[in-house]
Design a protein that fits this description.
The structure holds two protein chains of two kinds. By secondary structure, chain A is an all-alpha fold. Chain A has one domain: Up-down Bundle (AhpD-like), CATH 1.20.1290. Chain A is extended, with a radius of gyration of 19 Å. Chain A starts with 20 loop residues before the first helix and ends with a helix. By secondary structure, chain B is α/β, with parallel strands linked by helices. Chain B has a single domain, classed as TIM Barrel. The two termini of chain B are about 35 Å apart. Classes of the chains: A mainly alpha, B alpha/beta. The interface between A and B is medium-sized, with 13 and 18 residues.
Chain lengths: ~110, ~350
């Protein structure tokens, strides 16, 4: 193994059924239901997934949901905005912890 | 990676994939995938064979006012292959001798054939349903301004490509300014009643992916298109047909030059859908080339896979009893019609 991440491994995802087939089936059924059109369109769900993929920094998911977003009719503009949303939340999540820092600082300093 | 804008055909530059044999050399490399024929026969309905011919598709020429990046025809303004009137007359004789109800006219830009109006009018006299695959921009080009009205008068169904409901991907694939001109053309068509309920004038749009990926759900894409085109431009249409890009001609060139070919073919093959395979369009279509040669479909036409297997090869020899139940000529490109929800000139098939 030259690297931990190999793009070819994405196609082996279903091998996770080996050892826990019932759990895999539950996951697969739920996953399929989650991404079906509902109150949100398939395109909107693919864009959310793409944003989350960036937030959790999963290269498999970024690859898969870039393709999926394109297939569901999103364009580069929409996908880039989705990534900015994820990045803003990640950045904001760090920044909001600054309040904690300020609280500690306020308590400890004169 | 080089992203070329095309102004001329691949043929004009003598490019490798302007040659059908060169394309077939690549397409028919097994590359670890089962042969399409073998895969098709695995679904248990025997070899791929046509049934009753329902659609008579005529390619009236390769000349086009656009030079789209994915075009399987390699159509462009420089292409001079145009169907002559004699071949159109032979098509009319064939139609008169059969009970085929639908005539699907394609190109290039079919409107650029000088006998286009005459051909449509003659078919109309036979009371056949006529489909014209119009690229939209030709309908607002100089000298073609009266074509929308002509189409409406002859109750022609219009099918037009619009790869996206915004200019971004549309212009990238079909050329700068194409989206804006397409919007203008659709407004004209809508004003004539095209795409409006109960007008009897059918106007369908075609979605095809702007890259090396398969189309998503036709129904979901249609909802998106309808909402966005109405909201942003006040445009309406009847149905969206989602079509998979075939690894032929310019799209094949793109796949090879961008390094996507192997993966794309694997995707087509691994997405083989028996349900789609049972309804492939070649089962009920006959395709006629600009030069009168007969084919199983427009893609086989561009790959110069002329009918064989003992059937007539030219429109002058048209004999419907010999053409129905014919063995379809296949290649690895046929996986493009059987992947996912399937693909045909009429959209998904599964």
């Amino acid at each position: 193994m030259e690297t931990y991440y190999d793009p070819k491994d994405l196609r082996k995802f279903a091998e996770m059924s080996v050892g826990a087939p019932e759990l895999w089936k539950k996951f697969s059924d739920w996953y399929e239901a989650v991404f079906a059109a509902g109150a949100l369109t398939e395109r909107e769900k693919a864009l959310i997934a793409l944003a989350v993929a960036h937030a959790v920094q999963c290269p498999y998911c970024i690859d898969a949901y870039t393709q999926e977003s394109l297939a569901k009719g999103a364009d580069l503009e929409q996908m880039t905005e989705a990534v900015h949303v994820a990045s803003a939340i990640r950045g904001g999540a760090s920044l909001i912890h600054g309040v904690q820092m300020k609280n500690v600082n306020a308590k400890l300093t004169m | 990676m080089e992203k070329r804008t095309r102004y001329k055909s691949m043929k004009a530059f003598g490019e490798r994939f302007a040659n059908a044999d060169e394309q077939l050399k690549i397409i028919n490399q097994p590359a670890g995938m089962p042969l399409f024929d073998v895969k098709f026969e695995s679904i248990g309905i025997g070899p791929l064979t046509s049934g009753k011919i329902e659609i008579f598709q005529v390619n009236v020429g390769k000349m086009c006012n656009q030079v789209c990046k994915h075009c399987h025809v390699d159509a462009a303004p420089d292409r001079k292959e145009i169907m002559i009137k004699t071949n159109m007359e032979l098509c009319l004789s064939a139609l008169a001798s059969s009970d085929i109800l639908t005539v699907d006219i394609t190109g290039g830009a079919p409107e650029m054939n000088p006998y286009f109006k005459w051909f449509v009018s003659e078919i109309k006299k036979m009371r056949k349903h006529i489909i014209v695959r119009s690229n939209l921009t030709i309908l607002v080009a100089n000298g073609f301004e009266d074509y929308p009205e002509f189409m409406a008068e002859n109750n022609v169904e219009i099918i037009s490509s619009l790869p996206f409901y915004k200019s971004s991907l549309t212009d990238k694939q079909r050329g700068e300014g194409v989206f804006e001109k397409s919007v203008t053309a659709i407004k004209i068509l809508n004003n004539l009643g095209y795409g409006k309920e109960n007008s009897g004038l059918i106007f369908n749009l075609v979605y095809n992916p702007a890259g090396a990926f398969l189309p998503g759900s036709q129904l979901e894409l249609e909802k998106e298109y309808k909402r966005e085109l109405l909201k942003n431009y006040g445009l309406v249409f009847n149905n969206l047909l989602a079509i998979t890009n075939m690894p032929v001609s310019r799209f094949l060139d793109f796949l090879i030059s961008s390094g996507n070919y192997k993966e794309y073919m694997e995707k087509l093959c691994s997405s083989f859908n028996p349900g789609a395979a049972k309804n492939v369009m070649c089962k009920f279509t006959l395709s006629v080339g600009w030069d009168g040669k007969l084919y199983d479909c427009d893609f086989n036409q561009m790959l110069e896979l002329n009918l064989n297997n003992g059937t007539p090869k030219y429109i002058k020899d048209f004999n419907i009893s010999l053409l129905e139940n014919r063995r379809i000529i296949t290649g690895q490109h046929c996986y493009g019609c059987t992947a996912g929800a399937g693909s045909s000139c009429g959209g998904t098939t599964a």
